[in-house]
């Protein structure tokens, strides 16, 4: 896989740059700028090399139809301020665009094509569409690791028609994930949250042979608490996952990987309630489990203290209500403390986890923060991502 930084001469080259700028938008206002900040290095690198940049990205799921609420315009406006350069957004139909007409104005070094998912051909990985896109530039750079689990035209098919390179962020992301999958410093711990155990079973099963500890928190843990014979009241749980949980515990015994789950929790009667500490054998029918309790926090802190590598995906509770954010914050602080004395390598991933660490302004306190959700998890599961495979 060739990286763009190893390319000889990029002067005046038209570069088709695939980015992931799928940021959360509310009434045209960007709620979280993490993904925009992550693409600044590749933009600055290409500008310094005097390249001419044509950005391809998407927002949301417009399903092949134009949706003005999912325009890239607010993202362009924010990026303009960050790089102090004028960015033109091209609203014309992509099929009518020609290479010679793009970036004709010498004052324009960067243009954006409008949301690529306004075209149904994108998600169909359409050959004609990819070939037309490729005809707009001299080379292609994929710096969207978080889209690379999708076999889409501007991620995969396009590489068949243009010299193609990995971007700076994409390579950094893969290198960080390699350190928790193939270049491991043990003991290694995985803290995994979220609501669905079935969507993460592949990851857990793939990590058990490699990891020393797997800590299951969040709504996923409710299934295990219930499986172990405890009531979980009206808490979120997934139906028919007993076999999956049985398999996790059975596999973990074969590989001496310790599975940790809550032994005490914080409950409320509803999501907006105050918190109350309860042992897991004392949950009432109208209780809602919304965080981990103090005993569980101390157990997790001890495991982190004795780890050399930690991977964290998914908060420990309903952190949107401060009364149920303590578990997640204490996990974050335990990792940060070890990071500060350089005695741990930490990788954090997933949208909710990022929202959480942004809340405590701790983004820079981890070795690597991945903005990728699905791609991050599929990579950990051991799958070859279509976008990465295409670059090879």
How is this fold's topology laid out?
Blueprint: E1 14-18, E2 25-26, E3 29-30, H1 34-38, H2 40-48, E4 52-56, H3 73-83, E5 88-90, E6 110-113, H4 120-123, H5 127-134, E7 139-142, E8 164-166, H6 168-178, E9 188-192, H7 201-207, E10 213-216, H8 218-227, H9 242-254, E11 258-260, E12 264-268, E13 276-279, E14 288-292, H10 294-305, E15 309-313, H11 326-340, E16 345-349, H12 351-359, E17 368-370, H13 374-380, H14 386-391
Parallel strand pairs: 1-4, 1-7, 4-6, 5-6, 7-8, 9-10, 9-15, 10-11, 15-16, 16-17
Antiparallel strand pairs: 2-3, 12-13, 12-14
Helix pairs in contact: 10-11
Your description of this structure?
Helix 10 (294-305) runs parallel beside helix 11. The chain has a six-stranded parallel sheet with strand order 5-6-4-1-7-8. The protein has a six-stranded parallel sheet with strand order 11-10-9-15-16-17, with helices on both faces. The longest helix has 15 residues, at 326-340. The chain folds into two domains: 4-172, Phosphoglycerate kinase, N-terminal domain (Rossmann fold, 3-Layer(aba) Sandwich); 179-380, 3-Layer(aba) Sandwich (Rossmann fold). The chain is 32% helix and 17% strand. The mean pLDDT is 93. A hairpin with a 7-residue loop joins strand 12 and strand 13. The protein is of the alpha/beta class and 392 residues long. The protein has helices at 34-38, 40-48, 73-83, 120-123, 127-134, 168-178, 201-207, 218-227, 242-254, 294-305, 326-340, 351-359, 374-380, 386-391, and strands at residues 14-18, 25-26, 29-30, 52-56, 88-90, 110-113, 139-142, 164-166, 188-192, 213-216, 258-260, 264-268, 276-279, 288-292, 309-313, 345-349, 368-370.
């Amino acid at each position: 896989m060739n990286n763009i930084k190893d390319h000889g001469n990029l002067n005046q080259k038209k570069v088709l740059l695939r980015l992931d700028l799928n940021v959360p938008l509310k009434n045209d206002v960007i709620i979280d700028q993490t993904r925009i900040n992550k693409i600044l290095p590749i933009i600055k690198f290409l500008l310094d090399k005097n390249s001419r940049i044509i950005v391809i990205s998407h927002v949301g799921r417009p399903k092949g139809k134009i949706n003005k609420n999912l325009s890239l315009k607010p993202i362009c406006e924010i990026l303009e301020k960050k790089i102090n350069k004028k960015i033109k957004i091209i609203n014309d139909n992509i099929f009518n665009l020609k290479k010679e007409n793009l970036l004709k104005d010498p004052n324009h070094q960067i243009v954006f094509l409008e949301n690529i998912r306004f075209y149904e051909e994108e998600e169909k990985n359409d050959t004609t569409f990819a070939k037309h896109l490729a005809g707009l530039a001299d080379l292609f750079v994929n710096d969207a690791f978080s889209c690379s689990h999708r076999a889409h035209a501007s991620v995969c098919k396009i590489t068949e028609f243009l010299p193609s390179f990995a971007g700076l962020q994409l390579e950094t992301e893969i290198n960080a994930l390699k350190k928790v999958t193939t270049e491991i410093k043990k003991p290694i711990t995985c803290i995994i949250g979220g609501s669905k155990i079935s969507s993460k079973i592949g990851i857990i099963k793939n990590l058990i042979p490699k990891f020393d500890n797997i800590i299951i928190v969040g709504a996923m843990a409710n299934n295990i608490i219930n499986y172990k014979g405890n009531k979980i009241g009206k808490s979120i749980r997934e139906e028919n996952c007993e076999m999956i949980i049985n398999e996790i515990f059975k596999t973990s015994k074969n590989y001496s990987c310790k599975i940790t789950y809550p032994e005490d929790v914080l409950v409320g009667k509803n999501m907006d309630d105050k918190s109350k500490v309860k042992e897991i054998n004392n949950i009432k029918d109208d209780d809602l489990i919304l965080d981990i309790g103090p005993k569980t926090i101390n157990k997790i802190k001890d495991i982190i203290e004795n780890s050399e590598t930690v991977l964290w995906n998914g908060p420990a509770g309903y952190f949107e209500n401060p009364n149920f954010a303590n578990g997640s914050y204490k996990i974050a602080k335990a990792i940060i403390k070890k990071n500060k004395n350089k005695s741990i390598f930490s990788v954090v991933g997933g949208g909710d986890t990022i929202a959480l660490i942004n809340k405590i302004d701790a983004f820079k306190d981890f070795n690597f923060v991945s903005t990728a959700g699905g791609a991050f998890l599929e990579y950990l599961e051991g799958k070859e991502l279509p976008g990465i495979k295409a670059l090879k």
